[in-house]
UniProtKB/TrEMBL annotation:
InterPro entries in alphabetical order: NAD(P)-bd_dom_sf, Sc_DH/Rdtase_CS, SDR_fam, SDR_family_member_7C
One Pfam short name: adh_short
UniProt-recorded Gene Ontology molecular function terms: oxidoreductase activity, acting on the CH-OH group of donors, NAD or NADP as acceptor
One BP annotation, GO: intracellular calcium ion homeostasis
UniProt keyword annotations, A-Z: NAD, NADP, Oxidoreductase, Signal
Similarity comment: family membership: Belongs to the short-chain dehydrogenases/reductases (SDR) family.
Organism: Herpetotheres cachinnans
Name used for this protein in its record: Dehydrogenase/reductase SDR family member 7C
Length: 153
């Protein structure tokens, strides 16, 4: 039995993910189950959302989970066991108005993890994607001109 260890990670900060994954592997030696359950979304018309914000959403919802998965994956492959879960969204299957960046990032994640599932079968690593319907998320009311505060986390 291992004592719990709290490891903080900003999934949208791609540059720190590998170091955090190595910290976890160094502490425990392996990861049996990786559950990717972080997300960020914004509501707005395509023309009103900046490319900078589109990239931030993609970093958090696509590049973050795949970067963390790729950091943990070699350990699972070498042990020939493990489970990887992506908690995604129904918007990874369908798009709705005013959620283009979010839906695009969730579609990309579904595509990646669907391919990963097929590739990991030979290593006995299970890859699952969960696409729940709409849920109530934490939201901060934005200050005028502060787009980052309009992000749902």
């Amino acid at each position: 039995t291992y004592a719990p260890k709290l490891v903080l990670l900003d999934i949208s900060d791609i540059n720190c993910i590998h170091d955090v994954a190595m910290e976890i592997l160094n502490c425990y030696g392996c990861v049996d189950i990786l559950i990717n359950n972080a997300s960020m979304k914004v509501k707005g018309a395509v023309q009103s959302i900046s490319l900078e914000l589109d990239k931030k959403i993609m970093d958090a919802n696509y590049f973050g989970p795949i970067t963390l998965t790729k950091a943990i994956l070699p350990n699972m492959i070498s042990r020939r066991t493990g489970q990887i879960v992506l908690i995604n969204s129904i918007q990874g299957k369908i798009g709705i108005p005013f959620r283009a960046a979010y839906a695009a990032s969730k579609h990309a994640a579904v595509g990646f993890f669907d391919c990963l599932r097929a590739e990991m079968e030979e290593f006995d690593i299970s890859v699952s994607t969960v696409n729940p319907t709409f849920i109530c998320s934490y939201h901060r009311q934005p200050a005028p001109g502060n787009w980052e505060a309009s992000i749902w986390k």
